[in-house]
Every structure is written in structure tokens, then in C-alpha cells.
Amino acid sequence: MRIIVADCSAEYSGRLTASLPPAKRVLLIKADSSLLIFSELGSYKPLNWMAAPCTLKEIEPEPAAEPAEAAGAGETAEPAPVKVLRVAADKSSDILDVKLYHVYSDAQYDLGEDPGLIKEGVEDHLQRYLAEQIERIGEGAKLVRREYPTAIGPVDIMATDANGEHVAIEIKRHGGIDGVEQLTRYCELLNRDPLLAPVHGIFAAQTITPQARVLAEDRGFTCLILDYDEMRGAESDELRLF
Question: Domain named Endonuclease NucS N-terminal PH-like: which ranges (predicted)?
């Protein structure tokens, strides 16, 4: 990771055109040559950037224009850059030119291999907690197994309800229409097996979009909101079964 603090300007050309006037900013250059330009404000989002795959080159700045050519009456000429960073996209004609006028800091750091973001509340955790607390789908429910195999992929959880009828449960962090379609395919397939039918469906997620809820209920499925904090033992009384 290379971090540069400098007075700079930027010009982006190609599929779109954008420019940044001279100001003090932070440049992040990653090992894949991607470059991101940040200001003091603006949260996490860069002002401009070039994503990989791309190629970065340091090019010689063009000679400074003569004073008479550089500015008209009452205008201030742009200072001459001491360095120009050109980042070119490998798969398009996009180019990001960053002119550096004064460099306050230019440092490189080897960050090593990153293990990646470890998220709590992902589908595997939700699946495990719900399997251990299967009565959340209804009193008298019993777990058959997690990752119940089918010809089109495993159902997250197969259980039986208080009547002994099978229930296929599809679990998502954020439930959308695609998840409902997935549960539909599982239930249609499982209901062809006379040893399993009737198989009911439960669509379980931390959040479910209104469109997905309407579709799920129209297909006879139950929607279950999962409170991850409550399921792992934190205090909460927000579990809703619709």
C-alpha cells in the first residue's frame, strides 16, 4: 500500500469525464495499481478512483506554459506539477491523470496477506442457531437435519412440525425475491416424494423485503424474521413469526 499526501488535481477521461481542482488530498495506491483519491470529508467514499485491472505509470509533467499563455488578464495560472500519476484501465479507454504539485508525504507499507472480513450473523451462523433452536418455527417442531440434500442443492434446514409434516427452511441474511424462488424450487421438488409430502416452506431472514414477503405468502410460505442477537443469547424480545 502506497499512501501519498499531496496538493493535487485529477482528470478522469473515457466513458465519463470528471475533474478535481487543485487541493490537498490523500492518495491510496494498492498493490493491484488501483488508485483512490480521498479528501478530509466524505466518509469512506473516494472523490475519484480507478479500479483494477489497471496499469499505473509515473510520467514526466509537461513543461510549464509561458506566463502570457498560462493565464489571461485577472486569471491565476495553475502551478506546474512536480509529478504526474497516470492510471489506465486495462479493459477500456478510461484514464485517470493525477497531477501532484507538492508532496507532503509518500510512504509505502507492506500490509501482508489479509484474512478477509469475518462477519457475524452470516447465513451459516443463522442456520446453526436455528437448527439448535428449531422450536422457533413452532412449538413441537423437530430438526431432521441441516443441509438436507436434494437433486438441485441442499435445503438449509429440514424439520418436522407438531403434526409431523415436513418443513423446508431457506435462510438468508437479507431475504429477497431470489430466495423465495429458491425455496419454491425446493418445495416443488420435495413434494414429488410421497414419503415427504406435504412439505411446507419457511423463508427465514434477518430482513425480508416487502416484495419478497408478498411473493412468499402468495405461495403459501411462512416468513420468519430472525433476531441474531437474541438467537446467540443477547437480550431481545424481537422475534416475529408471520
Answer: 2-60
